[in-house]
Amino acid sequence: MGKGGASIPDEEWERFLKEAEAGGAGAPEEPSARARMVAQRLREEPGGPPEGWRTYTPARQRKGKGKGWAALGLAAAVAVVVVAVGPWGIADWFDGDGTGATPLAAESERPTGPPAGEGTDRPPTLDEPFRGSPAARWSDGTAGIHLPEARATGWMSRAEVARALEKTRDFLAASALDPAVLRGERPDEAMALINPHQSDVRDFLKKAFRAPDRENDPLLLFSRFRSSDVRPAGDVVKTRGRVTFQEGERGAVQVSTDVTYVYPVVRAAGGDDEVARTIVRREVVMSWDDPAKIVIEPGTFSLVSYKVDTTNGGCDTYTGYLTPAFLAERAATRPDGGAEVDPYDRSTSMEERMRESEDEGCGTASRS
């Protein structure tokens, strides 16, 4: 749990899920979700991606005479692109030192190209864990997540939209920045913001934390490291990203988030000051729904879609934890094939990134 909160015991979480599943008589139908492992399905299904692969396609289910109650049909596009960083060409890893440079302004719109910089062979250190990385000029924590100016949209007033945007940022902080979650604890605070009436999401969360696998991986939504393996190199996570919103189905306020997180870590065992960086880019789309039309708990959102792209967090490993490799490990596991990817390039949309990384195996990051 984050600051100021207590962890929810397993039995309380189970009771919460059971009560949410029971619902109430006469209420709108509960939302549903369909989780897909997109990268795998693309290779297995001929004729291109299935309908709703990366789009939100609501099901037109209605209940009751004259009321027009509608269920939220959720196409949760789940895509994992794992990019391994090779140990060769260390001078090419680090593009621009950034130490002491002017911090970048907030990212209010998609950049037109990758961050520029000059190559350097200065690796990160405990004192400067972001040295040699574009992230050295990024902001710390939630300060790097740009929120737009609120305006009345759909069923919400300007003040309500502002509150929804703030709670969206709270979710991002609780899912990807909370120190307890980063050291492997369950993200109870983040999960409490997700509509408990989405039955498929409930199933996904249960399976993801009990027995993670390709299709039920908590890393799709949350950043977690195994504390017995690594520990943070300092207390700063660099971020860069933005939040946008528009009116969605049935007057909902649909909020899209696209944020890159940079986590510097060292081995937990100690005796070694080598710093490795894991870079995670997530796009989460959520719907702040009108409770008169959608079954939803006050103060929660319904998941619309989620995608993740990870660099140096593990390749085809489904332990429920990010597993960064250090120099010796990267030397022994150089990826064979796969496109070269710049993990700091935010000029390409997540959808385009997924399409570029459809080939088998792990790709190679051009820098760390």
Describe the structure.
This protein is of the alpha/beta class. It has one domain (10-365). The protein is built from 9 helices and 16 strands. Strands 5, 8, 9, 10, 11, 12, 13, 14, 15 and 16 form a 10-stranded mixed beta sheet that branches. The longest helix is centred in the middle third of the chain and has 19 residues, at 158-176. It is globular. Mean pLDDT is 77; it is low at 1-8, 23-27 and 32-99.
Gist of the model:
This protein is α/β, with parallel strands linked by helices and 368 residues long.
User: How can the largest sheet be summarized?
Assistant: 10 strands, mixed
- Tell how many strands the DSSP assignment holds: 16
Distance between the termini: 29 Å
Mean pLDDT: 77
Query: What's the gyration radius in Å?
Result: 21 Å
> What structural category characterises the helix and strand content?
alpha/beta
Along the chain, the helix and strand elements come as: HEHEEEEHEEEEHHHHEEEEEHEHE
Residues in β-strands, percent: 15-25%
Provide a count of the helices: 9
**Tally of structural domains:** 1
> Which consecutive residue ranges, at least 5 long each, have pLDDT under 50?
1-8, 23-27, 32-99
**Helicity range:** 10-25%
Overall shape: globular
